[in-house]
Amino acid sequence: MCAPSNRLLEIDQLLMENQALCRQLARLQSRASEIIQQRTAEIEQLNHVVEYLSAELRCQTCKVRFLETKIEAFRSLSY
Length: 79
What we know:
The chain is an all-alpha fold and 79 residues long. It contains one helix and no strands.
């Protein structure tokens, strides 16, 4: 009779350990989700910065080309 009682005790202990592990897993999954959300927001923000800087670069490139054209026009006038 002692053996079935010990077996039930082992099962109870395993169930408690399983519940503790499930709670820990839930906390870790929740934290992982938070981190993923934070990283996604950071990536979106960085993508906006890249878009802005790309537009700025295009604008600066256009200005440089315009000024190069003007310089060439002035050079051709001086010859």
